[in-house]
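User: Predict the complex.
Assistant: Input components as received:
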Amino acid sequence: MRIAELSRASGVPPATIKYYVREGLLPSGVRTHRNQVEYSEDHVYRLRLIRALLDIGGLSVDAASELLAVLDTGKLTVRESVGEVLYALGGRRSPVGEHEQGAATADVEALLTRRGWQVDEQSPARRTLIDVCAALRLLGHADVVAAMDDYATASETIAATDIGLVRSEPSLERMTETAIVGTLLGDTLLSALRRLAQEHLSQQLLPED
Amino acid sequence: MRIAELSRASGVPPATIKYYVREGLLPSGVRTHRNQVEYSEDHVYRLRLIRALLDIGGLSVDAASELLAVLDTGKLTVRESVGEVLYALGGRRSPVGEHEQGAATADVEALLTRRGWQVDEQSPARRTLIDVCAALRLLGHADVVAAMDDYATASETIAATDIGLVRSEPSLERMTETAIVGTLLGDTLLSALRRLAQEHLSQQLLPED
């Protein structure tokens, strides 16, 4: 199909499609004539994936580009590929005071030991978790940090469902794509479910006045 | 304290402090002389809260301003105040095809009925959840939508912990602040825990090749 048709099928304007090609998010079409480029159904699907990562996942174009590059290598093992995706999706850094950083590192070490979770020293999610704990401590919310075991138990159930969904896919490419979509859109899905459950429970559990 | 000391205590540069005052995120200090403004410990705390919302929560200045306004009204009931915060934190919209939107609306209605969750028709999280389900369907991931009950069960456990933390606070202001911090930083905390649990479980459950 031509770019006008690709635009109609995906809902993405032609100028934006060209921008995604320039930024390396979308493979070029096949040039059939001097001024004619053909796109396929794969392009429609990829555009939907790009829009989901940007609009619902809230990723920057650079971050989406990095993730899609993992998807496109196709040379890694399943575990490597999924691992790369998780690491690319892992981090949100924020510098806080040294004192809180030390206490927060101890919080996270202790939690990992209690859960028996084997994770790399360099895991970005580990750094993110330390940063969040440090910020919570700085804000006087050690109570939230203390509730982390409850959150960790729930997260383990969630992760088991996640990995189950990845495992049920037929190919490495599809597994990697499921890890990207399931993790990123899953974050938005989980936060929406959490809000809805909070709304329901707050009517039952919070005082009216 | 003077602005230079406030800057040292909070780690936020003076120009940024002035910007937050102009944008309504931070109350002004008290003018004691023609060119001297005094700040208090409350300003240090508020600056930490602002930075946590922006840096770890990933909020825009406008969104943080809206949330802090709820915190500052102090005229609502606990339930209203927490409800306003949850709604302000609720939405990430993304337009998708009409067909998927219809199927996704049915997915979410059915889930809410199965769980017995009472939530408002206009709840932003409800709209977000429909949008995520529509995007997942569009990407061929009805399997993730079908796994939503597992995610909802885990989310209910998480929300019960959340509401318990809010309830244990001594004042309305502190409850509202806990709802903001716990929900927003909690999202980052939960996504980090999910990544760590995924990393641990993927080593056990995903094939090495």
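Chain B has ten helices and two strands.
Let me know if you want any component modeled separately.
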